[in-house]
């Protein structure tokens, strides 16, 4: 049956959706959530049906198409498409198997991932898949198969070079923006480092959110390849490219649920590294009270999994553990973290030394595993590149290539509505709770409001006197500032004894 296309000017964010008038739905015996196929010439789209209850939205004989479907079929308002009835994808059955605790092989996982990428699964079905992977942990074999499935359902970056390096942090530490310092150090040393980063899942800012303060992070794969070929590296949002595209669709479900299952995390990280062409990868695993990994034993177990799975994918993966009890750097939130990064690169007297120290340590490890220097010499080499200004020059090249402008740390705008938390008595800072501080920064508006977040004036084990500033909340609205203040104070995010 043919229908006239109506452009409804709505995007689902990934799922392929079409809207039928209720009379047409009744005549075809279609219901909310049913699947149909839409055909235009040689183009075919699998879509999920929504139903309009009046002709004001979609008239009889029309079919309202979301932006994803219009793009897939290459049709416009007023075109005609053919509708054919289809069954639910077989991947839904495989999701049910995982919900029951059964193990999935490569074939079944590829069907699921392929349907996620194609937008053939509803939000509910995708959510059930994410929940199933958190409830019934992936075996090592399943994790390898999932990683391969994610790689095989996307594109690969084409970067010339025998050695391509990359890094990843398992997360849970606020303000941990080492990537934006490590990348310019590494490419200044003559290595290739095409860095794709994610937006925040549970934190006040991801690397992509912070880099976006300085430059555009949304580029095509072809633009990324050109920039890397010219400069040696970049810092971009992976979701803008078709590199392991299922990952970003899964993250959209994980974000509101605050889920980050180990198997999914391993597959997500290594798939992104493999599709970016990485040959050598450093994994940072912070250990702390509120990080994703709470003790050294589990950190080593996860680290060894990264190494083994990476080897089976043709990558040399190494890992390091780091202290993650408190935030790294002073700023928490996109603009505040961007200030920290530029202070380190610009060698400001007020730069956060803990962020610099960790970045230099990580860059040093990468230089060693990539063969740029002998073991034990990497840290010194990385520090020299940073001190010389070579890293800053490379960062400015990256910013310019990605459409940004040269900027001083002091010129980066932050939220003008502020609240200071001060010491109520003399003592030592015993706890700066990552989880509470991150939540407060999110209530202040981060990462959506770039200038929102928290600035730390002190760190754990620092001595303070009564009335001294411990931290400042920044927000772009008074209402959000009020929420952030309440979250921080009620949950005792700061302890001085």
Structure, described:
The chain is of the alpha/beta class and 497 residues long. It folds into four domains: 2-85, Beta Barrel (Barwin-like endoglucanases), CATH 2.40.40.20; 90-136, Transferase, Pyrimidine Nucleoside Phosphorylase, Chain C (Transferase, Pyrimidine Nucleoside Phosphorylase, Chain A, domain 3); 165-409, Pyrimidine Nucleoside Phosphorylase, Chain A, domain 2 (3-Layer(aba) Sandwich), CATH 3.40.1030; 413-496, Aldehyde Oxidoreductase, domain 3, CATH 3.90.1170. 41% of the residues lie in helices and 20% in strands. It is built from 18 helices and 18 strands. The strands form five sheets. The chain has a six-stranded mixed barrel. The longest helix has 17 residues, at 296-312. The relative contact order is 0.10. The model has no long low-confidence stretch (mean pLDDT 92).
